[in-house]
Description:
By secondary structure, this protein is α/β, with parallel strands linked by helices. It has one domain (21-218). The protein is 39% helix and 16% strand. The structure holds S-adenosylmethionine.
Amino acid sequence: MRNKFDSENIIKSKQRSVDFGEVNTNSEIVKKMVDLVNVEFEKLDSKFLEPACGDGNFLCEVLERKLNLIKKLHSKQQIDYEKYAIQVCTSIYGIELLEDNIVLARNRLFEIFNRHYSKLFKKLNQEIIKSIRKILELNIVQGDALSFKSGKRLEKFIIFPEWSFIDNLIKRRDFTYKDFIAYAPTVEPNLFSNLDEKAFVPKSVKEWPLTKYYKIYEFKK
Ligand SMILES: C[S@@+](CC[C@H](N)C(=O)[O-])C[C@H]1O[C@@H](n2cnc3c(N)ncnc32)[C@H](O)[C@@H]1O
């Protein structure tokens, strides 16, 4: 018997479920789970990382909520909306083992942005559109979240950019995923520790020159 979640592609194939544990979460459960961290949507720059993101069910819900917030707060001026949309997209990260899921996740996220953007404004800025595509390419990556490696043979480290705004400029610093998550406040010693133990300050693997936020698409890699 078919149920209402059949159209959501929860299981794409039996073999994929066996080989990769691929069983996607249905939209009702996604919404309920994201509700649990609703307080994070009060800050536009709060970061979300999903280490086994599939084709993006959770990340799409996060983006949808963040874009709804900037629609409420910043849609009077297109230029403000665009800047905050860039900020929102830089705050969402994903890792997924299967390449086809990565392509789908990036496309779904882009389509959500595009739907919001084109509903609000008539004349769309192509530099913003290309920059959003670039951010999604860099933030949503193929890899094995357990070994911290990426590539077909898992031959290299997963690298993530950290993005920070300085007025209309953006600073990009690349970190290995392993070091990147060392930022997270956990019980381990970390950057935010205010206890006596030594804080861990990860070193970036590459620092990029300051760039205008609407020129992000110009990054070569
Ligand atoms: C249970 S599904 C969940 C997908 C998505 N998070 C959702 O809830 O709809 C698990 C996903 O993790 C991926 N996966 C399995 N092992 C992984 C690993 N070591 N690193 C990254 N992704 C992995 C699978 O390909 C699959 O798409």
